[in-house]
Amino acid sequence: MAPRTMTDAQKVAKFFPEFEQHSAQLADAQVVQTVLLGLEEVKRSAAERQVTFDPQVEALKEVTRKCEAARDAAVAAEATAAADLELKAGLRKAAQDEADSATMEQSNVNVDGQVAAEICEELRAEQAAGWAVAEMLGKDAAAQEAEADVEAVTTYLTGIRAEATLVAAVAGVLALKAAERGPFDLVTLESLSEVLAAKALQVEEQLALSTPAEREAKSEMLGLWALTEVLNEKLQAHGEASTQAQAAVVAAKAAVKAAKKELQLQNRAEGNLLAEQYLEGEKVEEVAVAILALQRLAVVAEAEAAVVAEAEAVALAEAEAAAASLQAAAEAQAEAAVAASIQAAAEAEAEAAAAASLQAAAEGEAEAVAAPAPEAAVEAEAAPAAPAAPAPEAEAAAPAPEAHAEDVESLTSPQKRRKVEEEVSDAVNFPVSLMGGC
């Protein structure tokens, strides 16, 4: 959606809210100056605020640079911690492999040593048993002991797989006391001694062969045990180091996260401050545009005022012309009325003169009738028809001389003349009053 275009009046009112009160008076230079001063004050204030932002912006940029350096250091520390963790994890794995290998070897050696020990133990037990049987043969035991010895000897002989006849004969020989034994018994005892001696020699030879293996197995077991202990301690140390490295990585990640968040907040603060500074600069530009708009509105208002003044002048001129025309017509009418009055007065005077002449003639005739002269009688007799014709007119006009005389007297009187002149003056001044009303 395209931005709505503002009118010049809206541009001015945006920064001078009282403009609506003065918008109808822009033809007045003082009003325009008042609005202009208000806009200039807004512009000056915005420009001052815009300048005050510079040190704040520079300070925030310095803090931002420090935050970026802290972020970079935290990232580098995280990378170092990760590399250290990888190294120590590798060492721990190697130690674990060595410990596992040693443990497995120890287990195998233990099995072999156990087998060698068991073999030697069995041989020693067998040797001890042979020694015990040989001792029993030379002992003159009581009856109860003899029974026990017989059982032990027969068990031993059976275990070494001696001849059955010898085993059976031994039981009878051992049951007798030494004094009761005969030659056969002595031969049996001698054969038994030979068997025991042969078995003892065999066991001794086997022990001679098995004992070094047992000692070697024990020595190897002891060495592997010591190695396993060392490797386990090494594994534990590498494990602790790996755990510490893991904790260092976690701490480094947290530090990176915190540094990034701090940098983000700082960037946001710097952006907000820059936006405010930009808005103040934009406000300065908008106020400058509003000043131009005010100037345009003032020019338009002056032009409209000039048009209105011109129209009023034209209307006034037309009214004055119309009034002058009416006055001229009234003056002409008054002059015509005066001329008519004068003419009427002249006619009245003429009529009055005629009436006076008629009256004089009538009076002369009356006198003539009262005392006719001889010449008049002769003339009357000579022309009887001439004076007879106007007789009716004289009779009809007889009262007229008096009326005409009154009219002439009224017209020629000073009072009547003043009245006529006042009427004429009123008639002349009437259009002027109308013009003044226009």
TrEMBL record:
Which parts of the sequence belong to the ATP-grasp domain?
193-409
Q: Does the keyword ATP-binding apply?
A: yes
Q: Is-annotated flag, keyword Nucleotide-binding?
A: yes
Give the molecular function GO annotations. ATP binding; metal ion binding
What segment(s) does the record annotate as region Disordered? 370-424
Compositional bias segments (type: Low complexity): 370-402
| Keywords (A to Z) from UniProt | ATP-binding, Nucleotide-binding
The domain of life is Eukaryota
* Name of the featured protein: ATP-grasp domain-containing protein
**Source species of the chain:** Polarella glacialis (Dinoflagellate)
Higher taxonomy: Eukaryota, Sar, Alveolata, Dinophyceae, Suessiales
